[in-house]
Inverse folding.
């Protein structure tokens, strides 16, 4: 069972470069989320989607864009990477609202030099 | 604004000891989830509590949701090295925020053999 798959697992970028992180889930979940995890900060919500074609801002959306063109995929884009975006990024999916368990991928470790 | 305060932030104990981790807020949550995260992996759900005063047990782990649904605790009896990890509480809000979880900053537990 694949569950939630994130690619790539590791990436190093230079300041100003752009990249896209891919999240794919095979559980037919409606809701998908992108978080970033920094030391001592817990998980902070960047953007989320409540269904195909929808996106919404979370707690820390600045500098990021997202798209949900297909139900199973949720893409996170960095248009012009900054050192402050160095973090571990997690994608999660859930079949319903906040009472449903969130299923997480294993994360993408991103370093911006 | 940090809606969920977890304490302690770090905890190092000997195998066989008992411990309690706290998750507190001034906000009322419709549900409260506890996750465990191991290094290099995404968080994995341990339990969801939805009713004020609810107590759930998972082997040596006991979870309690406060009567007013503003706080929760996780108690581990006779800790084992396999319990080592980052424990995260996450609250589900009502109304417009009902799609999201708000995470605490986590408690990093080390159980020494």
């Amino acid at each position: 069972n694949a569950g939630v798959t994130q690619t790539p697992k590791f990436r190093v970028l230079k300041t100003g470069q752009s990249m896209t992180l891919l999240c794919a889930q095979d559980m037919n979940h409606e809701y998908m989320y992108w978080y970033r995890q920094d030391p001592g900060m817990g998980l902070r919500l960047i953007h989320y989607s409540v269904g195909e074609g929808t996106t919404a801002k979370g707690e820390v959306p600045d500098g990021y864009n997202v798209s949900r063109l297909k139900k199973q995929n949720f893409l996170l884009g960095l248009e012009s990477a900054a050192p402050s975006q160095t973090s571990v990024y997690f994608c999660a999916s859930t079949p319903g609202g906040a009472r449903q368990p969130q299923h997480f991928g294993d994360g993408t470790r991103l370093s911006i030099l | 604004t940090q809606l969920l305060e977890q304490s302690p932030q770090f905890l190092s104990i000997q195998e066989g000891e008992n411990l309690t981790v706290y998750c507190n807020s001034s906000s009322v949550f419709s549900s409260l989830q506890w996750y465990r995260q191991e290094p290099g992996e995404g968080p994995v759900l341990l339990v969801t509590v939805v009713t004020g005063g609810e107590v759930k047990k998972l082997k040596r782990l006991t979870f309690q949701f406060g009567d007013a649904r503003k706080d929760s605790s996780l108690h581990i009896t006779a800790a084992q090295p396999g319990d080592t990890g980052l424990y995260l509480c996450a609250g589900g809000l009502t109304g417009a925020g009902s799609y999201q979880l708000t995470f605490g900053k986590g408690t990093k537990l080390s159980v020494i053999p």
Observations:
- The first strand of chain B starts at residue 5 and ends at 7.
- Chain B has a mean pLDDT of 93.
- Chain B touches chain A at residues 6, 9, 30-31, 33, 40-45, 48, 50, 88, 90-93, 97-101, 103-106 (CB under 8 Å).
